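Hi Y.,

Following your request, here is the sequence exactly as I used it, all 227 residues.
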Amino acid sequence: MTTVTLPSTEETDPYCLLPLDAAALLFDAPWRRFAVIGDSLSAGMGDPSPGYATMGWADRVADTLRRVHPDLAYLNTAQPGATTAQALQHQTAHIRAFAPDLLHVPSGANDIARRTPDFEDIEETLRDVYRLAADTGAQLLTFTLGKAYVVPVFPDWDERVRTLNDITRRLAAEYHALVVDMWDHPINHRANLLSADGIHFSASGQAVMAAEVVKQLAHHLGKRVRT
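Below is the corresponding structure, written out as C-alpha cells. Let me know if you'd prefer a different format.
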C-alpha cells in the first residue's frame, strides 16, 4: 500500500471540517438525542495526533450537533472489546431508555477477531441489534471498517473485513441506516493513520471520520456536500 504523509493540522487537512463549517452543514438537523452503541471503534478510541484535537469521532459529532441544538442529549454506551452479542446484552436497554432520534450501531469488528468467525451467526446477531435499534424510531447510522485496520495474527484479515463490510452494507440497506463507507477512503493510505495498536484510528483519523459522518448526515438532509 502506498502511504502518504499526514497533514500538519486538522485545519489544513483536506478531509476534515472546521467546527463552524460542520455546524453549518447541519444547521437544520432535527436530531436532539444522539446515542452510540458498540465497541471501542464506536466509542472513538485512539492515540493523539500532533495538530489534532484528541477527541473521538462520536464526541466530535455530538459537539457539532450541540452547536446546532445546545440542548442536545448524548449517550455513548460503547465498551472496548465488546462483541456485538455483548453490546446487545449489556447496552441496548440503556439505549431504549434513552430514546434516541439518531443512533449509531456497531460494525462487528470484535466478532471477526477469533480463530474461525461464523459469519452467519455474526449477521444474525447484528440483525438483532439493527432490529432493536430500528424499534427506537431513530435514524440509524453505521460505518464500514477501513482497509488500513489490520490484525496480523489472522492472515485472512483483509477478506474477513470485506465480508463483514458486505454484511454491514446489506443490513444498513434493509434497515435504512446511513453508511459511512471507510473501506476505500483515501486516509487508509496515511502512514500515521492508526494508533500504536494498529487497530484504532488515531486522532487524525477520528477527525476525518467525524467529518464523513457530518457529510453523510448533511447528504441525508438533502444538502449538496463537497467530498
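Helices lie at 19-25, 40-43, 57-68, 84-90, 92-98, 119-135, 157-174, 203-220.

Thanks again,
Q.
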